[in-house]
């Protein structure tokens, strides 16, 4: 039951979008997924309330006081656990990071979100230096213009690499589907390609991102659910 925490203390970095896109693809592959929505704005909870999400995907709103118990319950349910955090540096951030098998730090570009990402990296370093708790982590570039040149994207990754910051090769592109899913509900794979432009490109991007994220996780057995088998109802 791997736990992935999405953290950046700056708003607008793409945490919620990255969490939902990863969850959508994992559920489409037959995995149980629990999203712990720790953001008071509750964007993922609002999306879930629209309905039509795969029954494998459950969403629970949590707070600093309830996140640990909610994580234990999600582990009993099985599958993947994704924690979407608010844009703040507080005890909730520390708890969510401490619960994680991997911390994913979404960064929009490499300048505007640098400070928010740096604060998460500093927390991870402090845990390593003072508590000898080493939590694997990586940066994912988000809201990258689909038309951006490979050279420009490579330069951004090189910028982070020179500073010793592990960065995923796959960036989360700016796609209409990633906005529409919040309005329409459901998963990427259930959106109507006649209504959403370049849906196939968005799905390709989600598949690539998910493959790379999974490669970062501890090699544990995560049971998938047969598409023909009965599944749990969403919470």
From TrEMBL:
Q: Which InterPro entries match?
A: DNA_Partitioning_ATPase (IPR050678), P-loop_NTPase (IPR027417), VirC1 (IPR009744)
Pfam assignment, any one: VirC1
Write down what this protein is called.
Answer: ParA family protein
């Amino acid at each position: 039951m791997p736990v992935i925490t999405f953290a950046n203390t700056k708003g607008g970095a793409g945490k919620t979008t990255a969490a939902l896109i990863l969850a959508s693809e994992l559920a489409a592959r037959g995995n149980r997924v629990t999203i712990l929505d720790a953001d008071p704005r509750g964007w993922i909870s609002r999306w879930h309330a629209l309905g039509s999400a795969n029954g494998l995907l459950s969403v629970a709103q949590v707070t600093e006081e309830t996140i640990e118990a909610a994580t234990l319950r999600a582990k009993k349910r099985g599958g993947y656990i994704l924690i979407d955090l608010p844009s703040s540096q507080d005890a909730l951030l520390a708890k969510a990071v401490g619960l994680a098998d991997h911390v994913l730090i979404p960064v929009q570009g490499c300048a505007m979100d640098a400070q928010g990402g740096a604060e998460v990296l500093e927390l991870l370093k402090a845990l390593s230096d003072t508590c000898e708790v080493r939590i694997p982590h990586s940066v994912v570039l988000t809201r990258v213009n689909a038309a951006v040149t490979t050279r420009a994207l490579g330069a951004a990754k090189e910028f982070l690499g020179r500073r010793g910051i592990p960065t995923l090769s796959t960036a989360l592109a700016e796609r209409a589907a990633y906005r529409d899913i919040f309005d329409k509900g459901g998963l990427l794979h259930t959106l109507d390609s006649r209504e959403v432009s370049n849906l196939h490109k968005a799905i390709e991007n989600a598949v690539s991102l998910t493959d790379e994220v999974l490669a970062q996780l501890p090699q544990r057995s995560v049971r998938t659910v047969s598409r023909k088998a009965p599944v749990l109802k969403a919470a």
